[in-house]
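Dataset card, provenance and construction

Sequences and ligand SMILES were collected as paired inputs. For each pair, a complete structure of the chain with the small molecule in place was predicted and serialized as structure tokens. The example below shows a pair involving S-adenosylmethionine. Curators did not alter the output after generation; any descriptive sentences attached to a record were derived from the structure itself.
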Amino acid sequence: MHDTRFQRLTERLAEGAPLWRCLPFQEPEPAWCSRWPGLAEALLALDDDTLARLQADPLAGSALADSPLAAWLPVAALAELVALPDLSRHVTLPEAWAEGIAERKRRQLEAFVPQVPASPDEAPVDLVEWCAGKGHLARALAQRHGVEVTALEWDPALCAAGSVLAQGQSAAVRFWVQDVMAEEAGRWLHAGSRAVALHACGDLHRRLLTLAAEAGSEVVLAPCCYQRTADERYRPLSARGRDLAAAAGLTLDRDALTLAVQETVTAPRGVQRHRERASAWRLGFDRLQRRVRGVDAYLPVPSLAYGRMPARFSEFCRWAAAQKGLALPEGVDWAGLEAEGWRRHREVARLELVRHLYRRPLEVWLALDRLAFLEEAGYAVELGTFCARSLTPRNLLLRARKR
Ligand SMILES: C[S@@+](CC[C@H](N)C(=O)[O-])C[C@H]1O[C@@H](n2cnc3c(N)ncnc32)[C@H](O)[C@@H]1O
């Protein structure tokens, strides 16, 4: 069943590539606008509420019924392909275990912990948390299952802080300062281990899967941040993924991997407003630099950390121009240019809905590649969601056990 899904998704992503690859932020008129002027028109006419709903989840059931994209794009087919089994189960962790854990993280743990089975007494497994941070997951598992858990983390400060937390709660967690990319990292995994990883990024969870498959270790993984990888172009893990991608002409670069995990709505309102202003100002500057240079092309400007944004639009433009060695003319109509930036921002947000439609399909495709890799290594694998997207959009779970 997953193979058919993998195959169809590959085809859909390959045929949709000209749509999801377009960056309306950089190209005022994406190439697809001339092919489907009606689609661009319909999107540009959307009110703010519909925009927000579609940005949040363009493939959610509630968005499907009256999706303005459906007349042009395969919305229902994509929604069907990304609909995975709901594996969610929830436990409430005792208050005393939650010390030092942010509320949201705690609720994610409450959803993840029941995904990790307790091992029967007659066949105990070694639990290993991969890239553990302070080992919140390891601690919860140690206490819930009454076993010792090994926590691997390369940052000695996190290991030390995690050990203090574990000792304070009498939780049997042993931390090891371990770079999981190092040669010897495989020594922690064997046929009797169960490796768990909640939100381990790109290369870190790739490494886990490769080493686990070599060793025959069980895996319970919620993958994250596929774009955090040393490779410029995505190399499918599975032979099946490589074959399907090659046959369909599907290639994924870092932008595609970033799109797979791009979210627009989970940030607090203040941060969201800051982002919107940053986007409008950058687009305002984009107009200005095209005029000043006499070149109708996007010019990337470095990002600014939160709180470093100048107070006025004109100051931002002067800063950006200095970064690019551009001399600005006298008498710029700053108010008019800023208004243009905001107009472009509203336009870009709407045109980007086409890209957003392919966000989840890309993410599910990447998860299916991991599933296929494990199956090829002789595993029985389950793939589903372990919690609602509102708790974490990275809610895909892979659970694999050697056959
Ligand atoms: C996204 S955090 C996830 C932490 C934890 N699993 C959680 O959900 O809170 C990734 C962790 O991986 C650690 N890390 C990054 N690179 C690593 C490496 N090469 N080896 C081991 N740990 C690494 C980071 O220090 C960080 O604690």
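Derived descriptions for this record:
The chain has a mean pLDDT of 94.
The domain at 95-248+360-402 is CATH 3.40.50.150 (Rossmann fold).
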